[in-house]
Amino acid sequence: MRSPARSFRLGAALAAGALALTASPALAGTADPAGTAAHASRDTVRFATFNASLNRSTEGQLAADLATGGNAQARTVAEIIQRSRPDVLLVNEFDHDPDGTAAALFQRNYLSVGQGGAAPIEYPYRYTAPSNTGVPSGFDLNNDGRTVTEPGQPGYGDDALGFGEFPGQYGMVVFSRYPIDESAVRTFRDFRWADMPGALLPTDPATGEPFYDEDERAVLRLSSKSHWDLPVRIGRTTVHLLVSHPTPPSFDGPEQRNVRRNHDEIRFWSDYVRPGAGGYIYDDEGGRGGLRPGERFVIAGDLNSDPRDGNGEPGAIGQLLDHPRVNAAAPPSSEGAAEAAASQGGANTSHLGDPAQDTADFADEPGPGNLRVDYVLPSRQLRTAGGGVFWPASADPLSRLTGEYPFPSSDHRLVWLDVRAR
């Protein structure tokens, strides 16, 4: 049985007011040096993804931090959102709690309050659901000879179904100005990795045997967090927001269990949107198959895979960037990313990709350096009308919101894309 999701909706009057904000400027009467002012056309919808690093080390700490409006990191994250003004926003690394308390507090105490001179932003609809992170598997999934099942014990996260020190750590939440069709939401948290045909399940290079034994393969899920299909109603049009946060392709051994899992977590969406390829897929309520042909969609999330650099499986993100149903023709970019790669040096000097398209500021020595890992990818029938990465150049006053390590907000940047969805 599917774990109960939590979807929230405010009153119709608030919804109408929030939708009216779609055409409002990010800063009324003020210049916008970061170039992220809200779009002025009601014909476009701004989709965004932001790994906001609003994760905490202990269960319940995020809600406690958000209980008042005084948390500096949350205020900075909220200001980035207010200045970018997305209509539909995925936030990765936002600890999940069963009642959605943290998400409600973030809206009330941070997004609904103007930060640093930016205008408040209201999201009448939001969605969150359980994550595989920090859920004990009952098995020794990292094969270190110890099975750790108690939170707080060393090695617990490595033996959980998805890495996390407690259930829900590194979860995700969606905020939307448009209604989410709760009756048609599909989640795929329980889908087993071994049930994917041709899955890149790891082998032990020393023995050639499967890294996970039969009993482990019977419980190990594909999603390190979850995969969600959220139908968003934009007027008479439905756009399926397909969100996830695959595991980083690192923190493993020569078996490359995380590298391979990352590849297949990305492959899930490739199969889901390709007619005839997703017949093996089942959701958490037992429904089978992928997205119906012709449906509009936007794939969003921190996918932890760069097209040309980093440690991922070659071609992992190419499964989406080169997909016949995905419109990846106009990658979002920023001046700040290019500037950071040049000034920070290190691993960045050997990168093959365009540094202006980077979305995350990672360690430069020994690496992996700055990478493009966060994506907003619409379907082919959705025309784009601009996009960007919130990474202001150092001369921009708003660069105070991104900064350098230790970052005032996150090591990732908000990525947005305007699409014509009506």
UniProtKB/TrEMBL annotation:
Residues 328-347 have a biased composition (Low complexity). Residues 49-412 form the Endonuclease/exonuclease/phosphatase domain. Gene3D superfamilies: Endonuclease/exonuclease/phosphatase. Residues 300-319, 326-368 are annotated as: Disordered. It comes from the Bacteria. InterPro entries: Endo/exonu/phosph_ase_sf, Endo/exonuclease/phosphatase. This is Endonuclease. It comes from Marinitenerispora sediminis. The lineage of its organism: Bacteria, Bacillati, Actinomycetota, Actinomycetes, Streptosporangiales.
